[in-house]
Automatic annotation (TrEMBL):
<keyword id="KW-0460">Magnesium</keyword>
<dbReference type="GO" id="GO:0005524">
    <property type="term" value="F:ATP binding"/>
</dbReference>
<dbReference type="InterPro" id="IPR040659">
    <property type="entry name" value="PhetRS_B1"/>
</dbReference>
<feature type="domain" description="B5">
    <location>
        <begin position="302"/>
        <end position="377"/>
    </location>
</feature>
<dbReference type="GO" id="GO:0003723">
    <property type="term" value="F:RNA binding"/>
</dbReference>
<dbReference type="Pfam" id="PF18262">
    <property type="entry name" value="PhetRS_B1"/>
</dbReference>
<protein>
    <recommendedName>
        <fullName>Phenylalanine--tRNA ligase beta subunit</fullName>
        <ecNumber>6.1.1.20</ecNumber>
    </recommendedName>
</protein>
<comment type="similarity">
    <text>Belongs to the phenylalanyl-tRNA synthetase beta subunit family. Type 2 subfamily.</text>
</comment>
<dbReference type="InterPro" id="IPR020825">
    <property type="entry name" value="Phe-tRNA_synthase-like_B3/B4"/>
</dbReference>
<keyword id="KW-0648">Protein biosynthesis</keyword>
<dbReference type="InterPro" id="IPR005147">
    <property type="entry name" value="tRNA_synthase_B5-dom"/>
</dbReference>
<dbReference type="InterPro" id="IPR045060">
    <property type="entry name" value="Phe-tRNA-ligase_IIc_bsu"/>
</dbReference>
<keyword id="KW-0479">Metal-binding</keyword>
<dbReference type="GO" id="GO:0004826">
    <property type="term" value="F:phenylalanine-tRNA ligase activity"/>
</dbReference>
<dbReference type="InterPro" id="IPR041616">
    <property type="entry name" value="PheRS_beta_core"/>
</dbReference>
<dbReference type="GO" id="GO:0000287">
    <property type="term" value="F:magnesium ion binding"/>
</dbReference>
<dbReference type="GO" id="GO:0006432">
    <property type="term" value="P:phenylalanyl-tRNA aminoacylation"/>
</dbReference>
Length: 589
């Protein structure tokens, strides 16, 4: 959940009212927000950088407010004030309009080479804008918040804002080799090439995290005007030539992206928040984007759309009784202008509310405007007795009994590296039905685990100093790729146990298996009898040759047990022999 910092006096001035801290906290709660902290700039700096810093900072009171992650329209002072004033019914919801220019329509021409790196761009112009130091800082802060939130640290969308009067259209969005790019970056004194910019910001506190997005690409995205003046090198840095100052009157906003939908959301948010400073309020000028195939699009859209909901269904979900007219009034307080037609509610979704994608999002706004504390607590109409999910009940019963057998339960990560489930177990990754994470944050979390064994082996490796024998178990889900499943994968509940000692102790694992089967009332049988369980020899690279067996229950293989192969032991940084068992417990239900 993002947190914004706003100056209290500036906030109260914009709201046209003053509040005590408790009163404002109550107002935030009613609006669905939370006043997280009341502090000062000096205290914030001292907390972040140490007590020796912040001596020159201001003592002005600052409110730190927690904002829901999907409410991009509240991530700055302008949006927060507008939302609260509409909520308090002091102002009507603003009406945003995208205008065609009176003279030439500015264009951004996209070259084919951008398809190799960041293929989309959108843009807009704010005309006759008047900003001061506070509104300028708010614009920069909003860009940072959007970059960290919906833009996914600029990997999906990168924002650039420019002084339009310092540059000349039409603009070109191109991608060039880094050695062919040269310009003066923002707040720098000399010209750098694309390669030099990577070195320049390699240790920069904020920008270094964005360098890997394009660093290894043979081409870097670049935007320049008709005179060759570089506007920006997205997603890293803007050019110094077109930087915005307090004297800027016309602002060009451009967003390059790998996701066009999110680029439009970001562009709409920026325009809706700061078009109030334009001479013609709540308006923005369109920009035309021309792609290599000569298709043309005009941005921004700033489109409104209608959703139709049933007031009875909405109030029924929430648990309140209100007339359709009252529900419409509640939604209008949340910037969702609503009218009643034939006992149906026609809800107009503005360009600020891209978070509304389902009727349930509208129901939530009704509940917020009504007040959660005003919803009367009631008993359910149907009295039922809850019952534990059978698979979870079986898992809990087995946990207790396996612990009684002398094994210690472990709880390991559901995600692991590709090596953990393949190479370290002497398997090929192509032979493992793994679900791969498309954008893993670390190398340790690349796939969903297909077996519980690596987690227990890593737990042993982290507890080498513990006395022997070490006997661990885990009862959890694994995830297996399954083309027949609706989502392409399925969960499977398994129990895995491992014994580590100076001797492998296969008989200990075998004994645990027999105890589990005894508890499940599955008798020992022969291969000809399908009414119980038996073992049959198996060959698995993870286990020592001729020391591995498949566990067959009711004629179905549910798992394996055996002495772990020495190579696997060493792969997990262990030195003592281990025996292990892993079975699927779902067939036991």
């Amino acid at each position: 959940m993002p947190t914004i910092s706003v100056k209290r006096d500036l906030l109260f001035k914009a709201l046209g009212s003053t509040y005590t801290d408790d009163e404002f906290q109550s107002l935030c709660f009613k609006f669905g927000l939370e006043l997280d902290e009341v502090t000062t700039e000096k205290q914030m700096i001292a907390k972040e950088q140490g007590s020796d810093h912040g001596a020159d900072a201001s003592d002005e009171i600052i409110y730190r407010i927690d904002i829901p992650a999907n409410r991009y329209d509240l991530l700055c002072l302008e949006g927060l004030v507008s939302g609260i004033l509409v909520f308090l019914e002091k102002n009507p919801p603003p009406r945003y309009t995208a205008l065609l220019p009176k003279s030439n329509l500015h264009q951004i021409i996209v070259t084919r080479s951008t398809q190799r790196i960041r293929c989309y761009v959108v843009g807009a112009i704010l005309r006759d804008i008047t900003i001061n130091q506070d509104s300028y800082k708010s614009l920069i802060d909003l860009q940072d918040k959007l970059h960290q939130n919906i833009c996914r640290k600029r990997s999906l969308v990168a924002i650039g804002t420019h002084d339009l009067d310092t540059i000349q259209g039409p603009f070109t969005y191109d991608a060039k080799p880094p050695k062919n790019i040269s310009f003066k970056p923002l707040n720098q004194q000399k010209v750098y090439t694309g390669e030099q910019i990577m070195d320049l910001y390699a240790n920069h506190a904020q920008l270094k995290q964005y360098l890997p997005i394009i660093k290894d690409s043979p081409v870097y995205p670049i935007i320049y005007d008709s005179n060759g003046v570089v506007l920006s090198l997205p997603p890293i840095i803007n050019g110094d030539h077109s930087k915005i100052t307090l004297n800027t009157k016309n602002v060009l906003i451009e967003c390059t992206a790998t996701d066009l939908t999110k680029a439009n959301i970001v562009l709409d948010t920026l325009i809706c928040m700061f078009s109030q400073y334009c001479k013609e309020k709540y308006t923005a000028e369109k920009v035309e984007v021309i792609y290599p195939d000569r298709t043309r699009f005009q941005y921004p859209n700033l489109s409104y759309r209608n959703e139709e909901i049933s007031p009875e269904k909405a109030t029924g979900y929430i648990g309140i009784r209100e007339t359709p007219n009252n529900v419409a009034q509640l939604l209008s307080k949340m910037c969702l202008k609503t009218k009643v037609e034939d006992d149906r509610l026609i809800v107009e979704i503005p360009p600020t509310r891209h978070d509304v994608i389902h009727p349930c999002d509208i129901y939530e706004d009704i509940a917020i405007a009504y007040g959660y504390n005003n919803i009367v607590k009631t008993l359910p109409k149907g009295l039922t007795i809850a019952e534990q999910f059978p698979l979870n009940k079986l898992s809990d019963q087995l946990r207790e009994e396996v612990a009684h057998a002398g094994f210690t339960e472990a709880l390991t990560f559901s995600l692991c590296s590709r090596e953990d489930i393949s190479e370290k177990l002497r398997l090929g990754i192509k032979d493992v039905p793994a679900v791969h994470i498309s954008n893993p944050k670390t190398l340790e979390f690349q796939v969903a685990r297909t077996t519980l064994l690596p987690g227990l082996l890593k737990t042993l490796a982290a507890n080498k100093k513990m006395p022997l024998p070490q006997k661990l178990f885990e009862i959890s889900d694994v995830v297996l790729r399954d083309c027949t499943a609706e989502v392409g994968a399925r969960n499977e509940r398994r129990i895995c146990a491992i014994n580590c000692n100076k001797f492998a102790g296969f008989e200990i694992i075998h004994g645990l298996l027999d105890r589990i089967m005894q508890l499940l009332e599955v008798p020992w049988s022969t291969a000809k009898d399908s009414n119980g369980y038996y073992l049959r020899a198996a060959d698995d690279p993870t286990y020592f040759p001729q020391r591995c067996a498949e566990i067959v229950v009711f004629g179905e293989v549910i798992g394996k047990m055996g002495v772990i192969h020495p190579t696997v032991i060493s792969n997990f940084d262990l030195s003592l022999p281990c025996s292990a068992m892993e079975i699927n417990i779902e067939p036991m239900l």
